[in-house]
Amino acid sequence: MNIQTGTMAPALTSANPWTLVPSLGNLDAYISAVNHMPMLTLEQEQQYARQLKNDGDVDAAGKLVLSHLRLVVSIARQYLGYGLPHGDLIQEGNVGLMKAVKRFDPDQGVRMVSYAMHWIKAEIHEYILKNWRMVKVATTKSQRKLFFNLRSMKQGFKADAADGTHRDTLSEGEINSMAEQLNVKREEVIEMETRLSGGDVMLDPGPSEDGEDSYGPIAYLADTHQEPTAQLEARQRDALASDGISTALSELDPRSRRIVEERWLKVNDDGSGGMTLHELAADYGVSAERIRQIESAAMKKMKKALAYYA
Q1: pLDDT, tens only, 66-120
Q2: Residue 204, in any domain of the structure
Q3: In the chain, helix, strand, coil percent, each to 5?
Q4: How many CB atoms lie within 10 A of CB 252?
Q5: Were both Cys, which of 147, 187, 230, 274 would link to 262 (CB 3.0–4.6 Å)?
Q6: Residues 96, 44: one domain?
Q7: pTM, rounded to two decimals
């Protein structure tokens, strides 16, 4: 049926078969149109497939695609529970259908509809995994299998519960049963259930509605020690504490060096510092004020030497 004129839909003999499909501006109109696309007989399907395979006939490929668009709509409808737009699911499924048409071998003895289902579902699965959450929740074959089966199997366990109770978590028996049915490890079942029960959390929420900064995981996940500025500062402190101090002390005469070491660099076993001004004064036979003057002059000389490491 032609949607605009109310006449019967034309056979797939148009020079440009893609003109039979309306624009994607209206999803309902698109679905209605593809559901009215004429189906191909086995003979037509074989003919178009051979024309594509042997001659690279693009029009033949278009006719194969158009006649199976309703299959994509039907399959995409099965994945609406993941919260993604129906139109996007159909679009990704159409990509899978075109890949199937390109690789279809008419001599394999199977119908196009059976062959295309795998490719359509594969593209839709990949789209869901990439867009269901910000972070991809399933990467391995076992994880993908669990992602698309865990929720439905969990609902089945709830429906079969003899006591009529509804639990949000799986029991040990249900975990073991699910692992056995899907041929995966029970630890993988537990991990995937944990992933699906969580949600995306923004690392840095930014300012809230009242203008104040919101507290997010970035506040306690950030490792300031690995920041380039912190790394450079740490290296500078290490150089200053080792090579810098040694170089500065080498610039002093023996008496000034001992006074600085005793006053600032020496630590006793009990945690106390070195000698006091009066103890050093008595040791050298001078006044405490003289020891302070020598210490002050030594500090100025060391500061000048340490300027190279600043």
Answers
A1: 999 999 999 999 998 888 899 999 999 999 999 999 999 998 889 999 999 999 9
A2: no
A3: 65, 0, 35
A4: 20
A5: 274
A6: yes
A7: 0.54
